[in-house]
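Ticket #4471: structure output looks truncated?

Reporter: J.K.
Steps to reproduce: submitted the chain below (236 residues) through the standard prediction queue, then opened the result file.
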Amino acid sequence: MPLFHTRGLSERKKSVLSLCKSKDSESEPSPPDGDTRKQELLAKIAMLQTQKVRLTDYLDERSAYLTQFAEEANAEFDQIGENALKGLDEASARIMENIESRMHAFEESTELNKEEIEKNEKKLAEFEGQIEKDRNEGLFFKNLTQRTPSETANAKEEMEKIREVTKENAGSKIRRNIYLALIGLLVVGIVDSLISSSSDWQKVAILGVISIALLSQFIYEQKMASETKKREEEKE
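Returned output as attached by the reporter:
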């Protein structure tokens, strides 16, 4: 009897322990699906953060490159502008030097033309005096005792033509030199207006029209001078 009682107690304890273990095992939570999703989400966030850092680094690098490129481009543009202004200054200096040279030549030419006119007038006076002397001495025309009035008038008319042609040639040369000087100044003004940042196209157009008009007049004067010279050569 006591042995049976002891066995019953031990079996009861075993059943109670097994029941408790089963309850404990049931009460232990199994790994939920939410933890896996959280881990995947955290992995995606970490990946996005990494990509964000890489993108930020790339943008910073490109920004630095573009900044350097802009600085180099600005420096190159400044150098081009400086070279253009330097070239304009040199061109202006050459044009002004050319104008001064032409004006100096013009002054010398005017002086020479003046001397030539005076020389021709002196020759005319000497010629008239010689005619009068030859007429008085009977040597101008051996078959005539004195010159006829028509011959004297013709001689004076011829000398007057020579004087007028000389004056006309001198005046034409003076006008041509003046036209060239004005054209040079207008070209400088046009180039300066085109290079300037605030270009006045109306001013450029007006200067261009004036330059064309002066150039046409210069060509006309040159043509007339050539024709006059040709006529003189044909007469000779």
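Triage note (M.O.): checked the attachment and the full token line is present. The longest helix spans residues 33-137.
Status: closed, working as intended.
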